[in-house]
Design a protein that fits this description.
This protein is α+β, with helices and mostly antiparallel strands. The chain contains 7 helices and 22 strands.
Length: 421
């Protein structure tokens, strides 16, 4: 239930963001309680960070009016009031380099629903890569959302130097594309005459269990061709084939940024592939082979859920919980693999969202359970510098996870959604 308690927990770190402060200030390690749990992010909003010049940046945001509480403004109008802000952090020292916020208002008639779009500009005369926290708060009630990402001023040619919009003029918030419509692309920093696109297939390797001592296969795909697009600061691109696209201003250079093209239902689980493949985490090799080779794989997959759960009611509950986590993993962790097929996706799906997340230089720590009891389960992820993605984190595996892993699997295979405590 979306209540005040969740709001206060989600603001454990956000409280320090509200004041408009600048300069270097030492802070504790950033900790979050619901960074990868959209159910606890009580506002659904999209953000896009765009470097509009060598010393300035813009945060674009969009959200539906239904995400905010409107109060009566006049006989005909209702008004919403919300705050958008940011904090730039040096990941090596956790020093706050800059922070600011701005209050926005929106008015509408009682029955009118529309998309709110806006932007917030700020000076960003940095020349390195930092972290940025962006947040949006409803000032009429205790609701908020937080995103955490890299603030890349070290390389001009990265996705934050480009702005993409759909045919209706809506800013594309990240690097995931789910439509085949033509998109406009522009940059104030990159003035190349052409852009070059290389297409690659998605990775096919699944992550190893957290107790495994094996080594995952490296993602080293080959591109079949290079597509050239007219640019000169503005251009148009259309991605019709699913997969990974690297965008270059010089096809001989390694400097590029990545776009991910998925089907229009992504990150939701609406395809047979996305329903069946994540079951590999719960099934034996022989069980999964039966699903994979069946004439109708989804029917066989559903029969396993029914067998494990014992009734259609319990099976529906387990399916709903499992694939909600698959969807969340796709939303937050997709790289050259779908998010569910990454290390963080694996842990999120099997163990549930962590109760606490701590961000440190090139690392993430996930904690389950209460610190006071001494029964905390934790996972450590190391950020990997990868040419195809800035969202690759590798789990530090340990034999000590084996009992936790099989306890979770036993629960799922008994039809009980598992949440580590």
């Amino acid at each position: 239930m979306r209540g005040l308690n969740k709001y206060l927990v989600g603001l454990l770190f956000l409280i320090s963001l509200i004041a408009c402060n600048t300069g270097r200030r030492a802070t504790p390690q950033p900790q979050f309680s619901n960074l990868y749990d959209s159910k606890s992010q009580t506002i659904n909003a999209d953000f896009k960070l765009y470097h509009s010049s060598s010393d300035s940046s813009i945060i674009y945001f969009s959200l539906r009016t239904g995400e905010l509480l409107y109060t009566r403004y006049s006989n005909e109008l209702f008004a919403a009031k919300f705050r958008v802000g940011y904090q730039i952090i040096d990941p090596a020292s956790n020093a706050i380099l800059d922070s600011n916020s701005q209050v926005f208002n929106d008015k509408k008639k009682e029955t009118n629903q529309h998309l709110i779009q806006g932007k917030m500009s700020f000076r960003s005369a940095f020349n390195q890569t930092y972290d940025i926290i962006i947040y949006l708060q409803d000032l009429n009630r205790p609701s908020q959302t937080i995103v955490y990402e890299e603030f890349d001023r070290n390389r001009f040619q990265n996705r934050q130097s480009f702005l993409m919009k759909n045919e209706l003029g809506k800013v594309i918030p990240g690097n995931i594309i789910t439509s085949e419509e033509a998109l406009s692309i522009e940059s104030q920093l990159i003035q190349s005459d052409s852009l070059y696109l290389k297409h690659f297939d998605f990775g096919s390797e699944l992550p190893l269990p957290p107790f495994s001592s094996g080594t995952a296969t490296e993602y080293e795909p080959q591109s079949e061709n290079v597509t050239s697009l007219p640019f000169s600061g503005k251009g148009e691109l259309k991605l019709t084939k699913d997969g990974v696209y690297r965008v270059y201003t010089d096809p001989k250079s390694e400097h590029s940024f990545t776009l991910l093209k998925f089907s229009n239902s992504f990150p939701e689980v609406k395809s047979t592939d996305l329903f069946c493949k994540p079951l590999r985490y719960l099934t034996s090799k022989d069980e999964y082979a039966q699903i994979d080779t069946a004439d109708i794989p989804k029917d066989v997959a559903e029969s396993y859920w029914l067998k494990w759960s014992g009734s259609k009611t319990f099976a529906r509950e387990a399916i709903r919980a499992y694939y909600k986590r698959v969807e969340e993993a796709n939303r937050y962790f997709s790289t050259f693999n779908e998010g569910w097929a990454t290390d963080r996706g694996l842990i999120l799906i099997i163990f549930g969202p962590p109760e606490r997340i701590m961000k440190q230089f090139k690392r993430e720590y996930w904690y389950y359970g209460q610190e006071a009891t001494g029964a905390t389960l934790s996972f450590s992820f190391r950020k990997v510098d990868h040419p195809f993605s800035d969202n690759v984190y590798e789990l530090e595996r340990s034999p000590g996870y084996k009992s936790h892993w099989y306890r979770a699997l036993d629960s799922w295979r008994a039809g009980r959604p598992y949440r580590a405590r």
